[in-house]
Specification:
Elements lengths: L6 H24 L7 H11 L4 E7 L2 E7 L4 H12 L7 E4 L7 H5 L16 E7 L4 E7 L8 H16 L3 H5 E6 L8 E3 L3 H12 L13 E4 L11 E6 L2 H9 L15 E8 L8 H18 L3 E9 L2 E8 L2 H14 L6 E5 L2
Parallel strand pairs: 2-3, 5-6
Antiparallel strand pairs: 1-2, 4-5, 4-7, 8-9, 9-11, 10-12, 10-13, 11-12
């Protein structure tokens, strides 16, 4: 990454740039000329924040700019940091994930599919409430599906659901999602009515729902077959990047692709010798080390912890590093302060 800007530097560059063009972009959107600025914005975003999806819109005196990791948690963590560094820009609202389209907006949506024949108004959904899981199971059908290959049905449906419920709404509110022929009945409704129905269900059953990035979501896991490769001794852990951990272990300690490639951010982990942890206090001591590193990184807006694991020989703390060499120095200095410099090492997932 030598010579490249770190992700933190890129974010700071964005927030220096956008206020200088905000009024111009608002004027173009107000005059329905948003298509004339797309290439200009794309060129800037490709340079500043590549591999993150973006969109902007609005009218009159209310405009929005949205950055998205397209459902990839590692990249979504980057958009959350981007939002945390935002400035107040008059008439503009910023989002770190795609927001739900309003009912009126859905009515005007052009549709999906090769010929845009899958129109929102004709999507019929049968709902079933799973009280135990606090989710709504659905089955959905559109007349145009009869003329579209089955292999495309689910992807089109999920895109439509994401548009109606927002980037995280589908996973927050929906359980089983099936594509099958549905007929009108008391348990069916149109897509444009689904968000209101889900709101009523959540209110009635008093379900508390939070976007996964709002309430940091961690998953516990256990490894049954340790091996002789980086982190191959892992036994169990808790992390907010489970898919990356599983793939790293499955590929024997090397990710085939770097999920943060060219972003200026890094996924790393600290490995601490097992003899550091007193018998019976392993969880508390590892947690204290993680908290110290996390606090140091966050204090300088340079990264954060993502969870950790225990292994047969070492214990691990996963990290998102946002400021290159400075982030690495913060981690190593913290380990030095904890008198762990000779009992630990900093390594990288990719």
């Amino acid at each position: 990454m030598a010579g490249e800007k770190t992700y933190r530097e890129r974010v700071l560059d964005f927030w220096e740039w956008f206020p200088t063009v905000a009024d111009h972009y608002a004027t173009m959107l107000r005059n329905q000329k948003g298509d004339q600025i797309v290439l200009e914005i794309k060129e800037k975003m490709d340079a500043l924040l590549p591999h993150l999806s973006w969109e902007l819109g609005g009218a009159e005196d209310s405009f929005f700019f949205t950055l998205s990791g397209e459902g990839q948690i590692a990249r979504q963590l980057l958009t959350e940091f981007w939002l945390s560094q935002s400035y107040e820009v008059p008439a503009w609202t910023f989002h770190a994930s795609r927001q739900p389209t309003s009912s009126e907006g859905l009515k005007d949506f052009p549709g999906w599919g090769d010929d845009q024949q899958v129109e929102v108004a004709d999507l019929l959904i049968r709902t079933s409430i799973d009280e135990e899981s606090e989710l709504v199971d659905i089955a959905a059908w559109h007349p145009a599906f009869a003329d579209i290959g089955e292999e495309h049905h689910l992807s089109i449906l999920v895109k439509m659901l994401d548009e109606a419920l927002g980037e995280f709404g589908t996973q927050m509110y929906l359980g089983e999602i099936e594509v099958e022929r549905v007929t009108e009945g008391t348990d069916t409704r149109r897509l444009i009515d689904l968000p209101r129905f889900i709101d009523s269900v959540c209110n009635y059953h008093k379900w508390e729902k939070f976007p996964p990035m709002e309430r940091e979501s961690y998953s516990g896991y256990q490894i049954r077959d340790p091996g002789e490769f980086p982190r191959g001794d892992t036994l169990f852990g808790t992390t907010c990047i489970p898919n990356i951990i599983f793939e790293f272990l499955e590929k024997h300690g090397q990710l085939p692709e770097n999920p943060l490639d060219e972003t200026g951010a890094e996924l790393a982990y600290v490995a601490v010798d097992g003899d550091v942890f007193p018998e019976g206090r392993q969880v508390d001591v590892r947690g204290n080390i993680e908290d110290a590193i996390d606090e140091s990184l966050r204090d300088q807006a340079s990264g954060r912890s993502l969870g950790g694991a225990f292994g047969a020989r070492e214990s691990y703390i996963e990290l998102l590093l946002l400021d290159g060499e400075n982030s690495r120095k913060i981690v190593l200095d913290t380990l030095q302060e904890l008198q762990l410099a000779n009992k630990s090492r900093l390594a990288f997932f990719a």
